[in-house]
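User: Predict the structure for this protein chain, please.
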Amino acid sequence: AQDDANALKRKARDLEDKIDIGEDGNSNKYGVDGELYTLRKDCNSITAGKYTYELCMFKKAWQRESSAKTGGTSLGQWDSIAIDENTGSRILKWKNGAKCWNGPQRSATVFVTCGTKTRLISADEPNICEYEFRMESHIGCDESFRIMNNL
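Assistant: Here is the predicted structure, written as structure tokens:
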């Protein structure tokens, strides 16, 4: 019975991927150039202070006590990808997380730079319940990066 359930889950994921791509083979869901397709099932985490932050592409972002493996406080649901007009870098956003006491709903913004491995390299909370992360990834190594860095 467990094997049948796992087979059905795999089949459902495969169908979801086909739907996401669309009949014409294109989808803005995976970014302007489809650059997020290879990251579509990835979660990345970083520990900063007493918290571990986990950001899952097209899913949710979480803040947990470093000793916890699951649960935690929602930083939001995947929202969008944008390209900064000044720098050409990609900006990933999660919105509508758990409401802060006497404050806004939590959100997470990731600024992507060029790197050979996809990984979070820093976490910060510059404003109450607004989290910012820096990420290195191959998706940041594009033509804009080449031009901005005179490569």
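The beta strands are 43-48, 51-56, 60-65, 73-83, 90-96, 107-114, 119-127, 130-137.
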